[in-house]
Amino acid sequence: MKICIIGGGGLVGQKLAKALAKRGTLKGQSIDSLVLADVVDPAPVEAPFTVERVTCDITDRASIATVVDADTDVIYLLAAIVSGQAEEEFDLGYAINMFGTMNVLERVRELGTKATVVFTSSIAVFGGDVPDPITDNSYLNPQTSYGGQKAAGELMINDYSRKGFVDGRALRLPTISVRPGKPNRAASGFMSSIFREPLQGQEATCPVSRDFPHYYLSPRKCIENLIKGAEIPAERLGQNRAMTMPGRTWTIGQMIDAMTAVTGPEAEKRIKFEEQPEVWEIVKGWRFDIHADKALSLGLEADESFEDNIRYFLEDDKAAS
Question: Are 178 and 217 in contact (CB under 8 A)?
């Protein structure tokens, strides 16, 4: 089996590659080769099979053709620019997040291979006046450009799958926390930084109040669910190939309390609360009462608690950060 991870240089792409390398199989088949593609050269990943690292611009169909070939069985389409940047750079957001997705799907259609395409969408596709709770049957009503671009990607995954061009599945990611590494331009970035930095002896700013709720998932569970998502038989997905990845809803205060329960009170002292209007303008449209019944029925999982998220960061990522 040949797998291509587009966005293979990012946090999720690298963790997914390492998990696949350790596992050695996908969909009941041995992995023979893995292509890590990104706009910059991805970091190397050790594996018992061939790992190729290449640069790829998904806004350019010719570039995609160099990384997706007739032997490619599974494509993880993770590449995107995140919410804050997509809001600021409208044209770039659509070029990468929407037209880039279409370019990848068109490449598979051109090859005629019906490859499995796992597309990472976002809970940002929900918002506005859709009634709570948000379920798999709620209509998409994004309140940001990023959400609109991801919603368009979901519709394309459905249509290209309906036509038999690809075997697509779109997984809406919750906010992934605690993310290691450096802050990015996601509006949700503070939801990792207020834990990641204090746990490493640094100060961090929280731009919302302690009672602000959100829907979360750890990086470890996210990777497990991405692997399971590729392995779900197509006939079990039904007419809608999109689903929300299971997560948990907690307030900022509950999450900080969870960190304190695991590591003691010192980290919380390094968090300061300071409202940031530009962040609030984006996050105020997000929704929190989300039910991921379809994904749960198909075997995907949420974390048991936010204490687990903190423990996973300490075990998997603190030293690397």
Answer: no
Name the domain count of the chain.
1
How far is Cα 191 from Cα 287, in angstroms, rounded to an integer? Answer: 15
251 occurs within a structural domain: no
Residue-wise pLDDT tens digits, 47-105: 999 999 999 999 999 999 999 999 999 999 999 998 889 999 999 999 999 999 999 99
Q: Which two tokens stand for residue 225?
A: 């669910």
Domain of 228? 2-173+218-246+289-302
Name the phi and psi angles at 127, rounded to 5.
Answer: 160, -170
| Residue 139 included in any domain | yes
Residue 76 is a catalytic residue:
no
Q: Backbone phi, then psi, for 300, in 5-degree steps? A: -75, 160
Q: How far apart are CA 149 and CA 144, in angstroms?
A: 9
Of the listed 146, 160, 215, 216, which one is catalytic? 146
Say what angle helices 306-316 and 219-231 make with each other, to 10 degrees.
Answer: 90
Q: Where are the beta strands (DSSP E) in 157-292?
A: 167-173, 175-176, 204-206, 213-217, 242-244, 248-251, 271-273
- pTM check: above 0.85: yes
